[in-house]
Design goal:
- The chain is α+β, with helices and mostly antiparallel strands.
- It has one domain: N-terminal domain of TfIIb, CATH 2.20.25.
- It has 1 helix and 3 strands; from the N terminus they run βββα.
Length: about 60
């Protein structure tokens, strides 16, 4: 699958590593840190993958 919008993601909130956002299925995106391997996956049911991508980037970048 393809990698998406790497420049919009802040470093990992846990280790400072580089995050990677990839489409890992027809309706699924995976966001993970390449250093500590923390990750989360989301599927889209009603909305587009672009919408899900925006939400995942927004949530990844929200932190204390």
């Amino acid at each position: 699958m393809s990698e998406i919008r790497r420049g919009d993601l802040l470093p990992c909130p846990f280790c400072g590593g580089e995050p990677q956002l990839k489409q890992t299925g027809k309706d699924k995106l995976t966001l993970k840190c390449l250093r500590c391997l923390v990750r989360f996956e989301q599927r889209v049911l009603r909305f587009s993958l672009e919408w899900l991508e925006d939400k995942m980037v927004e949530n990844w970048n929200k932190r204390i």
